[in-house]
Records
---
Amino acid sequence: MIQEGLRARSRKLVMEMPRPARDVERLAPYDAVSSLSAIKSLPKGTVPLKLDWNESSIPPSPRVIEAITGFLSNGHHLNWYPELGAPKVRAALSTYTGVRPDSILVTNGSDDALDLVCRTYLEPGDDVVVVWPTYGHFLIYVKARGVQPRLALPEDPYAVPTATILDTLRDDTKLVYIPSPNNPTGTVTPPADIAALCRAFPATLFLVDEAYYEFCGVTSAPLVAACPNLVVTRTFSKCFGIAGLRVGYLMTGPVIMENLRKLYNPKSVNALAQVGAVAALADVDSREAYVAQVRAGRDLLGHELRRRGAEVRVTQANYVLVRVRDPQGLVGALESVGVFVRDRSRMEGFAGWVRFTVGTLSQMHDLIERMDVLLETRPDLLASFVP
Ligand SMILES: Cc1ncc(COP(=O)(O)O)c(C=O)c1O
């Protein structure tokens, strides 16, 4: 009986497939390309220099590994759900940031925080302004809500973007995305500008992405106590060395927090990530030593590349930009010696630029040595960009 009914209906529906939401159907898949498989197939003995995704270039503090290994000695920590809402991470983050625990939400990477804000606040017809060029993944979260973001594109991509944001912002703009330092330009938006924008446009949500905060030390986090329309996001993927565990967080005032909590999944930060994040925060010396290495490393790399004739931008984050005539050629040549960097030259307004994640001083010396070997036979690799 059921079989007959199913046969009759499936004939009728044979050409139809379940359709995704209209706004998702229109999206192109996010074209993230990982170098991990290329790294795995490197010849034996080649030490990879993974400098393409701005992760920490070294493993986390041994205290993180110890904490996770100890935690795994009780198998129940895997068959039980994690602690809801990551309370220990929140408490430790409150000490680290100076922000009240109830103003902090721990998420599955800061990507998850950005997505949560978009899912909670955006609907078709909303106006969203995004400082550009920037972290492209954010656009997916916006477009998935049926919103076509408007790009605030400053004439000089290295200028503080506040004036361009003001020019682009409308009175009814729902959300403005301001990464600071911005990826890839490295621009830092002063907290005083953020506070002024929040006060002038109380119906607009200002989303300040501080994924690279630790490398520059400038933050808008203390403003969340006074600016109810501000959200600040951060991550454990950069200076804490646990990008693979996926932990991020956001800070905001009580009204936005109450709305975000309606969609927030308190189980979304896994048990190992929670243990790893607490241990990473506790090892202040490791973090400070790594940040100091990166700060010295970016100056060293900038200096050495300039000495070899390249056009260079040293940012306040953990990356340095190099503008060359043949970005793909440079990326490919470096790959042949086990160095992975990111071609950003196809971003609008960013022709010619290649981004190098900065690691420790010894890694940067290693990078320069490998580059010099290449330059012996390919002196054109750092040749100037021609518009
Ligand atoms: C500006 C910016 N925001 C967010 C992220 C994502 O960080 P997470 O690993 O915490 O999801 C990145 C990653 O590169 C980034 O550059």
---
Amino acid sequence: MKSGYIAVIGKANAGKSTLINVLVGEKVSIVSPKPQTTRDRILGVLNEADRQFVFVDTPGVYRARNALTDLMMRTTETSYKDVDVILYVHDGHGGVSSDDVELMKKVQSAAPMIVAYTKIDIMPAERIAEDAKRLGEAGVTADVYPVSARKGKNLRKLKDALAALLPEGERIFSEDVVSDRSEKFMIAEIMREKILLKYDREIPHGVAVLVNEFRRREDGVYEVNLDVVCEKSNHKAILIGKGGRALKEAASFARKDMEKFLGGKVFLTTYVKVRENWRDREGLMREFGYRSEE
Ligand SMILES: Nc1nc2c(ncn2[C@@H]2O[C@H](COP(=O)(O)OP(=O)(O)OP(=O)(O)O)[C@@H](O)[C@H]2O)c(=O)[nH]1
Ligand SMILES: [Mg+2]
């Protein structure tokens, strides 16, 4: 039996969470086209007959601008220490810059590393070999595996390469576990995902979602009440929209996903609140669940 921890590291928006979801076979981490979607360290577990992969999703590397992004970068820095393997996710479609090389070289010294060169479904195939060669010449020693999470391409090869680097050992989590996160956490994240998809610029980045109520009634319906906390009163107006239409739409998409996730009907209510500049206020951040794990 092979089992171990695999830290999934890379720049923001590279496709880390998408790849983990596809490998695990369930949605354990939210995804969006905007950078800085993942804010926490989230475990996603893939169980096979003789292998257990514990993927550690992390916030993508991005320049820190406030106390929240600063905390996110510290989370990422600590997440790839003390793991068995590092899976570095690189957005192949975005090309290779000296920044990418530098980051890969820094990360590869912490543990055995493999590069997943992803999004190959939306880029010219001939660039893959060129980029892999370039990385090698620049001092990246890890093997490069071209994949597409969206099209499910080359994932078996990637898994086998990861498994080869995992230590022998018993399962870390029991076989029915796919994530270390609670239903309550995922409910809030699903709402945050729909907000990331619906709103532009700084608004979604300044949103935290808090669960006030999450319970299953006797008739099986889940009652969910959420606070959508934003940073400024003009953001609140935009979030709600004319006649409440914008928020209603985001909540409706969220409700459908929650129902799929929970396997039952959901009655969802939301309130929008303002907490001025909460992303720079440690006390509020902690209250919203963003705290250092050390
Ligand atoms: N075409 C294509 N798009 C992909 C692929 N994998 C991810 N994406 C898209 O890339 C965007 C970012 O994906 P995420 O999985 O949220 O990226 P991430 O690395 O987790 O981002 P952060 O959490 O912000 O660091 C989303 O729009 C995904 O749909 C892929 O294999 N092919
Ligand atoms: Mg992510």
